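Risk register update: the risk of archive-format incompatibility is retired. Evidence:
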Amino acid sequence: MKFNARAKDIPLSATLALDARAKELIAEGRDVINMTAGEPDFDAPAAVRDASRAFVDSGKVRYTPAPGRPSLRETIAGHLSRTRGVPFEAKEVTVCHSAKHALSGVILSLVSEGDEVLLLLPAWVSYFEMVRFAGGEPVAVPCRPDLGPDLEAIAAAVTENTRGIMINSPCNPSGYCFTSEEMKALCELCEERDLWILSDEIYSRMIYDGTKHESPVTYGEDARKRTIIVDGASKAFAMTGYRIGYLAAPPEISGVVGKLHSQLTGAPNAISQEAFECALAEEPAEVSDMVTEFDRRRELVVKGLSDLGLPCELPKGAFYVFPDVSAHLDESGSMGFCERLLEEAEVASVPGSAFGTEGHVRLSYALGEAQLIEALERLGRFLNAR
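Archived output:
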């Protein structure tokens, strides 16, 4: 059997692979604390679950248009207009099976053979492979020591083959949030070099310390025209299993992605569309409660890591920490560190190398307080034994 080389050679997502290994050990009876997955440990809001049940019971679960049902596209446009402070129309929105589906659809639509796309490190693991699968070349741009964007390095990385840049604020894995000055400078660079901006805003609702979410679309008409926003239900509404997301972009971009998906995947899940429309129409009270709890856990984990002597920037968003473990690495790097931590201490984590930033590991604090405290104690014993 002859395979498409790009499909055959694509690696399994590092986060999913480590999550799968952790679950294998759990199934064997091991007491593993799994800090790999980016999944809130909360239920979807009650109103969302009620809306889903009612829609199923109505018997009217049918195909929708490939870019999403009109009422949901209108609701998303209204949500974006309120939260980003810039008017959006339904024709700019394409509903997708997930935010990851939206990201891949945009990349397949905008990237041609040999095109370069800038990825700001640390960058989510799937960005690299999405660009490669489309025939493009992902160009990793190192970050500053505080894990923020190095604007000089970004400018220096642009070549005649560069077509766009992918940004993620709040960032997975670091939790770093762009400042207004950084976003403004980035938008000016993209205007000067004529680059599109793919802005992954899946964690935009999960921010702390009064931090303001910065989206490129708010930085002038030019930035608005060259930006593609991707967002979804998984993180803010704890709706990971619903698998529903969207992109918002100028109609010529959203329309192409919609046509692509009409051929490759078809309409998104109708039940999930109903649930997402309910969540966006009026934000459920559970959302702010969840963010408050993540804020509390964030401070608990960062203090615990500091007590263990592991440098860790205080994340401003998302629900991950990205401590520096370089003092504890051997020749196997962060991957070896995570493998030993799992097998010896039964704590599952993700190596920084998966995000293009060696010397760090990603730990999710989407776990209960008791588990987080136990994980920190196990990590401390692991470090002391080496």
